[in-house]
Amino acid sequence: MDIRNHKFEFGVLIKEAEDFLEEVRHLFSKSDLPEGVDNQKVSAIVNEIREEFYSKKQILR
């Protein structure tokens, strides 16, 4: 709403967005996160969570 009410100048917003994007790119380049997802690991974690959830659900009945 503040943007619609002209509380910010357009040029200032663009500069902040560009600065933010530059920071994100810099941090991304330094990140040690893997390029992709280990689908087998994710599936194993999801299965473990489901097993624990459903085993507790049986106890509550």
Task: Report on this structure.
This protein has 61 residues and is an all-alpha fold. It has one domain. The protein has helices at 10-30, 39-60.
How many helix segments? 2
- Major sheet: size, sense and barrel closure? none
The proportion of residues in beta strands is under 5%
Shape, principal axes of CA atoms: elongated
Helix percentage:
over 70%
Count of domains: 1
Low confidence ranges:
none
Structural class: mainly alpha
Query: What is the succession of H and E elements?
Result: HH
Could you report the average pLDDT, rounded to the nearest whole number?
Answer: 88
C-alpha-based Rg, rounded: 23 Å
**Measured distance between first and last alpha carbons:** 49 Å
- SS elements, strand count: 0
Summarize the structure.
By secondary structure, the chain is an all-alpha fold.
Notable features of this structure?
61 residues, mainly alpha, elongated
Q: Could you outline the blueprint of secondary structure elements for this entry?
A:
Elements: H1 10-30, H2 39-60
